[in-house]
Amino acid sequence: MSVTADSGPGRRAATKLANRAAIIAAARAVFAEMGYGGATVRDVVRRTELASGTFYNYFSDKESLFRAVLEESAVEVRARVRAARRQARSLEEFVAAGYREYFGFLASDPEAFELMRRNSGTIRAMFDEPIFGAGVEELAADLRAAIALGIVPELDTEYMAAAMVGAALEVGVTMVRREPPDVEGATRFATTVLLGGMERLGRASGSEAASLDRA
Questions:
Q1: 27, 58, 89, 204 - which has most CB atoms within 10 Å?
Q2: pTM higher than 0.85, yes or no?
Q3: Which residues contact residue 35 at a Cβ distance below 8 angstroms, ignoring those fewer than 6 apart?
Q4: How far is it, in rounded angstroms, from Cα 59 to Cα 73?
Q5: Which distant-in-sequence residues (6+ apart) come within 8 Å of 126 by Cβ?
Q6: Of the CATH numbers 1.10.10.60, 3.60.15.10, 3.40.50.2300, 1.10.287.130, which one belongs to the domain with range 1-59?
Q7: Residue 206: is its pLDDT beyond 80?
Q8: pLDDT of 3 above 80
């Protein structure tokens, strides 16, 4: 007897994907409303049409679920930030474009906004995890490409990527605590601070190169 698409492996795989997506969507809302500390797995399951035991087919505990929620948002915002950076034609555009896209994402998505506002401490504690590490690595790659194009001065891309992502997190946390959130103000502040450091590093690198040439 042949297996139809409605009852076969394809349908089961689609159901698993739908169940996982439903759990993550419910968790995003719960963590935004209640915070990580106040939320429970039961709170999340109640927001879905799934049986309580189904949750553990997808996630081992609340912490793994919270990571999945952050990862889903991170993948989206990283793609938007990279696209914005790659259109830059100057150092200031390169720095500002990424920050504006990130801060704008937080301000324009009510759940992302509340997720950051209510869970900033928990998110900080996870800063050294792959969720954020991927963003640092992607930024370092974009910095290297921009240096090759002459948009960004010669500098240590690993240090600079870490500094820029760290600034995005902390300025973003501060921005969402203000009412109303000021995307342009946050972008301007972070850009000005980072630009000053990058330009100074570029001048120092140029001076060292000139000294070597004279020698």
A1: 27
A2: no
A3: 118, 119
A4: 17
A5: 67, 70, 132
A6: 1.10.10.60
A7: no
A8: no
